[in-house]
Amino acid sequence: MRPRPPIHPTPEWHFPLPQVAALSNGAPVWLYDLPGQVIVTASLLQPIALAGEPKDREGVATLTARALDEGTIAHPGPAFADALESLGASYSAAAGFTTTECVIDAPADNLAMAFPLFAEAVLTPHLADEDIARLRANRVAEIHQNRAVGSHVAGSQVRRSLFAPQERVSRPAGGDLTTVQAISGDDVRAFHQATYSPDRSTLIVAGDLSGLDVLAAADQAFGGWRGPARAPRGDTPPATTAPSSHVIDRPGAVQADIRFGWPGLDRLDPRWPALRVAICAMGGSFLSRLNRVIREEKGYTYGISMSAHLFRRGGYITVSCSVRTDVAHPALEAIRELLTLKDPFTDEEIAEAIAYLTQSAPLSYGTADAVVAQAGVIASGGLDLDYITGHLARMRQVTAERASEVYRELIDPDQSTLVVVADTSQLPDTWGIAPEAIPQT
Amino acid sequence: MQHRYQLHRLTTSNGIRLVVNPDPAIPAVAVNLWYGVGSADERPGRTGFAHLFEHLMFSGSAQVASGEHLAAIQAVGGSANATTSFDRTNYFEMVPTGALEFALWLEAERLSSLLEAVTERNLDTQRDVVTEEKRQRYDNVPYGDAFASLLELGFGQAGSPDSPHPYAHMPIGSLDDLAAASLADVHAFFRRHYRPANLVLSLAGEITADDALDLVERHFSDLPAGEPAIPPQGPVLDPLTDLPRLTLTADVPQDAVYCCWRAPAATDPASDTISLGLRVLADGLSARLHQDLVRTDLADSAETFDLGLARGTSLVVASATCVDGVEPERLEAALMETWERFRTEGPSEAEHRRALAQATRDHWSALAALDDRVDALSEATGLLDDPDRIMTQIDRLRATTPEEVAGLFADRLSPDHRATLTYRRLP
């Protein structure tokens, strides 16, 4: 027998603090020097709220962000991608509900040459009609693709059901079939003109920056950028609705995609550390209560998880899994039973969840892109630069009692929004809920 | 761009190939165990077994309860998982430095005493879990059967019903075969494949080579080496002929076309050279297929990839999804026109340089995270016993010429030697 070796405690660890500077136009720059990370990630975060998209053109922010690398004034058409890709750089973008993020990855050696191209894409994109038409068709195809995937249908439905219809977060960030098909080149150019601006934007760069004058390169590229002033962001979380239940018919499906959902909270809520620990113990780790029973004991699923989805303000909580159709009923009952938290969390469960969440932090931030992603959350959430370090300390203080209390405050299985996407002809009954068709979005 | 990792290739007293990359950037160590057994080692009637077995490796051992392996690693802030492919099964942990010895102990525990813990009940449950994994990954998603169909097209004709080619089936296997797997199969499989001599163990992170060897010896050295590993090998198959074709009518959002070719194995340097050509065709907005198919409104997307198979022959795939209203035949013809033009003229100097720049970025990106880096080290050692390959591979690519790329495409990837899978949307 080999004796079980001791585990040595992890020394205290801090999320890296950036060098903070500003461009000539006032936009802050955060530089994270990560020796050995030879592919550098640079991310420009603009506080563009999708709530500001024209209601009948939702998705215009997504098409704008996606179109930036389709050609610029200086490098029209494919010449832009050719120039960027010849440096070994790549561009990507995402228009989230409150922040649009434009990102380039480039080998450190080529960063100084990639920056002017990055700025060209953001400041002076061509946004030609034919490119917008193609990206619009791609987005439509993407919507059809999403509608063909049960887990995606379930995920969209739960968000749509949890939030009031006037709230932008109740609808897809990239727009729906009707709004996307209405978007023209003029719409995109107007949106770019009206919303792209250095005001309240942040540039974050991470990677092995040794020997590079990143600030000078960034300032040369973006320092002269001017744009409209932005109003300060609102701080009101999106309004939620009363719980509802939905069964969506997906003929031919061989599994039932199940979602439970509840309104949640954001990082500024003092309950967040306790909620995060509680969610981990209930459904965030391999032997969490849900996965232990639903996967490891019953074999109903490949995996079940509970997650918090955090917006800048407000959020929601879900439980997700896919089970074979003929056990959908017992699985639903078993999940609901576990979610009632009949027995409060034990000290041991909470200690393990805290250890998992806090000690895994240094492991999660080993790469440039991971640091940039987290720094982006800090920037767009208006959080302190050492937010992560403080958050880890607050999670370490969570007791089993506090975790159970916050869990019960926020998660009532009898007050959950429920979504099941399945081939209803294979279900013995649909829990008394009239089946719906897959929504158009 | 020149970047170098410090690497040590060691061997333990019982034949474990040990690779160590000291890198103290974060207080963690990534552990990767690469057993030289995959779905290509399965017997007919027992497809999916290597992967089912991978699940059973989490059943515990003499001193570890079922599921405890993963839970205990998570409870120290680490992560653990495993994957099964055609040529290997790998198990990995990423742990805070203070838990490295514990992770190695867990791995040694299951290698020494797994069979004491596997029960009929574990087997039944994990069979159910794997069935749901198959449904979730393949059976319940559009185009989920593309992978299996491409393997059938590429390798189905290479064997016989009694002796199918080892790459003719997917690692997930068939549900009938999974249902037939017995506890006796589990025991036999473990004894046949799980032994120190068939193991590559890679470590990267806050650890020195000396300490690594010491720890691995401490926990693994009492296990007998077993039969030496057999390097992955197999026949170089002749190119496909007669344009095999399969058309599936399915509930998919768009019509789509996949073409595939038998190609050099992952162990053959020609495979790397071909990868440059595949980038010229489909990596980024400047790639030829993007220009010729996507920008012309024939395809929504176009991509190329290589399955990276090691035993003699791999499979290269080019695929595209149709823009609404474009017939798949028309898209296939356009795809082959671009392909054939590239095959005859090869990459331009500028295209070659661009593909190299992209390959360089992807190469170092793929090594940026410790857990990805140990996986690459294990693969380079398991396939070719050459851990330095994680660096020399990119150097070697930079020494290639456009003519070499063109030559390989001309020889191996003619449209005449393709097979085609077409999806037609249900009317």
Explain what this protein looks like in three dimensions:
The complex is a heterodimer of chains A (about 450) and B (about 425). Chain A is of the alpha+beta class. Chain A has 16 helices and twelve strands. In chain A, strands 1-2-6-3-5-4 form a six-stranded mixed sheet, sandwiched between helices. Chain A is globular and about 60 Å long. Chain B is α+β, with helices and mostly antiparallel strands and about 425 residues long. Chain B has two domains: about 10-220, Metalloenzyme, LuxS/M16 peptidase-like (Cytochrome Bc1 Complex, Chain A, domain 1), CATH 3.30.830.10; about 245-425, Cytochrome Bc1 Complex, Chain A, domain 1, CATH 3.30.830. In chain B, β1 and β2 form a beta hairpin. The model of chain B has no long low-confidence stretch (mean pLDDT about 95). The interface between A and B is large, with 79 and 79 residues.
Low-confidence stretches of chain B: none
Greatest interface by residues involved: A-B, 79 and 79 residues
The total strand number of chain A stands at 12
- Spatially, the strands of the biggest sheet of chain A line up as 1-2-6-3-5-4
> How many domains make up the coordinates of chain A?
2
User: For this structure, what is the CATH homologous superfamily of the largest domain in chain A?
Assistant: Metalloenzyme, LuxS/M16 peptidase-like
Which class of secondary structure composition applies to the elements of chain A?
alpha+beta
Helix amount of chain A, in percent?
25-40%
Mean pLDDT of chain B: 95
CATH topology of the largest domain in chain B: Cytochrome Bc1 Complex, Chain A, domain 1
Overall geometric form of chain B = globular
Write down the domain tally of chain B.
Answer: 2
Gyration radius of chain A, rounded: 23 Å
Task: Determine and state the CATH class of the largest domain in chain A.
Answer: Alpha Beta
